[in-house]
Amino acid sequence: MRKLVAFDEGLDSVARAxxxxxxxxxxLFFGNNPNxxxxxxxxxxxxLGAGAEAEKFIINKPTCIFIPxxxxxxxxxxxxxxxxxxxxxxxxxxxxxxHRVDLWPPAYKP
Length: 110
Hints:
mainly beta, 0% helix
């Protein structure tokens, strides 16, 4: 489930609740600047793990993230968006089943 946060709250953000899947998942993020292939066009806050064990990663250039089955991931927050960029998800199974985990990182701030 995605939660839209209004632009006037200081964020241009979409947040996903922490979850895991019973299959592998790959996230691809890339920008659309034809003059600079390393320019993502924004910043993504990406969390791996659950609750107090979660670790925050800041993505500000094109990136590929492999999430093995069972690893809790998200929230995912888009910040400082200067231009549109792409997010592509690749699954190794034909059907998506999300298992929500209500253990938000203590340092997470929407």
